[in-house]
Structures are given as structure tokens and as C-alpha cells.
Structure of Lipoprotein:
Amino acid sequence: MSRSTVSVYVACTALLLAATVGCTSNTVGEHADAAPLSGTSAGKPTQNVAKTQQTWQSQEEWVLSFYKDQSLDDEAKVHHIVDHVADMNWGTLNKISGHQSLEVIEYLYKQRAFIPSESFPHLIRASDSLDGTLGESYAAIMGELFTRDKTAMTEALANTDKSNRARGIGSIAYALSYRETSAVKKEIRQWQAGQQLTAAEKEVIRALFVKLDDPY
């Protein structure tokens, strides 16, 4: 092959390679524009927004759902239930649960150690629409909690409305009536001697003493 022929061959080969590279680059660019990477749009990241729909539930439905939730341990379950019982109607809960109101109250009694003192106001406001066995079981909880933390319960009673306060005091007195009244009063007086109670809190104790003399 002559020198001139080789030169022509090399030149043609170079032109062919240049054309091939150019076509390949254009093809890649076209595909890149047509199909951006997942999660991007026109070279910019995009976000997937998950939409969740919340269903409104009544307090009774919330309490029932927490009570039936087997994924919760007893401590978490008690906290959730107690946080939703304020102003709840136990009769309504009984209807939607298939008569499980007593079961829920008895569960709270058995797990009362998990009821925190800061939740006492919620329980005090859960005293409406209780009667018969429900009322007695509720009273048992209130009596135990008062015995455990007189300071927190007295403060909570003093800061609630008149109707719930009266029912709460009545429930505590009923529960404590199973003990010797004089011994109960002595225990409360000994506790009171070491406290600096407000006027409202002193009134709670006075009303409790009156109710202890006639708990029924």
C-alpha cells in the first residue's frame, strides 16, 4: 500500500469515528431528556408526599380501641385510656363495646399502679354516667389512688368543677368506708399536718370527712 493510500485510509477512519461518537452522544442526550432518573424531574429532585386520612373518633371509641389494642403493653394502654376518659359517657362505651365498660374499669383497677398522678384530673372527670357495679368499681380506683397520693388527688379535686369534685369525694369516701373510719381520718390528719394546703384543698378534706361519716 502506497504512502498516499495509507494517509487517505487514516483520514477516512478518523472521520468515521468522529461521526459515530457524535451520533452516540446525541442518542444518550435524547434518552436523558426523555426519561429522567427516578425521583427527579428536569434534573431537579422531586418529593413523594404520602397522604393520610384521619378518621374522627369519639372518646368512647378511642378508649375502646386502646383497650383492644394488643400491640400495647399494660403501661402504655393504661396511659392512653386514662388520657381519654375525661367527660366520657360510660353508657355509650357499654353500648359500642358490647357491655365491656365494667371490664375496662376493672382492668384499670388491676393496673392502677400505671396510672400517673398527673392523670388524676382525667379520672375525676370520668365519674359521670356511672351507677351500680360500675360506680363501685370506679370508687375502688379512686380510693386506691387517694391512698397512694393524697397530695395529688386533693389538688386535682380542688381544681376541678363542683359536680365532678362532689362525685370524686363521694367515690373516695365510699371506697374508704370499708376501713375503720376513725383510722382513716387519723391517717388523713397526720398527712394534712405536714402539708401547706390551699383554702380549696382544705375544703376538699373537710368535705371528705363529712362524707366519710355518711358515705352512702
